[in-house]
Amino acid sequence: MTARYTLIVGTKEWSSWSLRPYLALRATGAPFEEVVIQLRKQESPTTKELIARYSPAGRVPVLTIEENGETVTVWDSLAICETLAERHPEAKLWPSNSGARALARSYSAEMHSGFPDLRDQLTMEFARRIPTPPLRDATKDQIARIIAAWERALAHYGSDGGFLFGHFSVADCMYGPVVSRFVTYGIAVPEAVRRYMDRMMALPAMKDWGAASQKEIDAGIA
Ligand SMILES: N[C@@H](CCC(=O)N[C@@H](CS)C(=O)NCC(=O)O)C(=O)O
User: Fold this and answer.
1) Cα pseudo-dihedral 70, 12, 150, 111, rounded to 10
2) In angstroms, rounded to a whole number, what is the distance separating the alpha carbons of residues 127 and 135?
3) Among 47, 60, 76, residue to substitute to test ligand 1 (most atoms within 8 Å of Cβ)
4) Whose CA is nearest to atom 16 of ligand 1?
5) Band of the pLDDT at 2, cuts 50, 70, 90?
6) Ligand 1, residues at Cβ distance < 6 Å
7) Which of 24, 124, 133, 149 is the most exposed place for a label (fewest CB within 10 A)?
8) Rounded-to-10 torsion of CA 180, 175, 207, 50
9) Partners of 35 in the beta sheet?
10) Coil, helix or strand for 33?
């Protein structure tokens, strides 16, 4: 029996954590349903109440997998990406080479647990274009670290597919929202990184996410 996936995400204009597993799920090619929860909603039902219907952790994204009469709930962006990589080996969401795979995991974990100033100062506004604000030194350092890491991965593996580790992987999913932020706030990047960002923004999944974000802005909910 085929599994039935439902991905619960937040307002697409803002929910950077939701974009990550969305990219991974789209890369698998598996059909899925989507539930979009409006973030920053104060009136009843509030965002908190809406999310509580799906996860005790009180955060989106959440993936539910209905299979063989059971429903498994997976929360947290990286756990969902890992689960999808395990369930869809054909999608090659982790590099097949063990050294590259270890590095891709390090990149993904670094993003998942790090870059707090970047996340605080350059919040995701997927479909908006905003002048670069005055950046704190810590934010500048984190931007420089990400650019250096991308350049290193692209120089070693990028020729074999154009993504960080060649073939599109969880590492690209984890940094997808950073690509969006760099575009939104006009962050200057070297040419090789610009080409990588263009490739990411051209993915059908990124375009669909952008179109949905624009609809939220037009509807006045983002
Ligand atoms: N570590 C979590 C972070 C998830 C997270 O912080 N999600 C935000 C939306 S992007 C959220 O659910 N916020 C709850 C709220 O706005 O009430 C992950 O990787 O999924």
Assistant:
1) -60
2) 21
3) 60
4) 39
5) confident
6) 10, 15-18, 39, 47-48, 59-61, 76-78
7) 133
8) -90
9) 8
10) strand
pTM: 0.98
Residue-by-residue DSSP string for 52-95: HTT-TT--S-EEEEEETTEEEEEESHHHHHHHHHHH-GGG--S-
Best probe residue, ligand 1, of 59, 110, 112, 119 (max atoms within 8 Å of C-beta): 59
User: Using one digit for the tens of pLDDT, what is the confidence trace for 142-196?
Assistant: 999 999 999 999 999 988 899 999 999 999 999 999 999 999 999 999 999 999 9
pLDDT at 1: 63
> Which amino acid residue places its CA nearest to atom 13 of ligand 1?
59
Read off the pLDDT of residues 30-78 as tens digits, 9 standing for 90 and up: 999 999 999 999 999 999 999 999 988 999 999 999 999 999 999 999 9
Residue 173, token pair as written in the block: 């999913």
Residue 154 has which token pair?
């692209």
Euclidean distance between CA atoms 19 and 80, whole angstroms: 11
Paired with 73 in beta bridges are 64
Amino acid at 22: Y
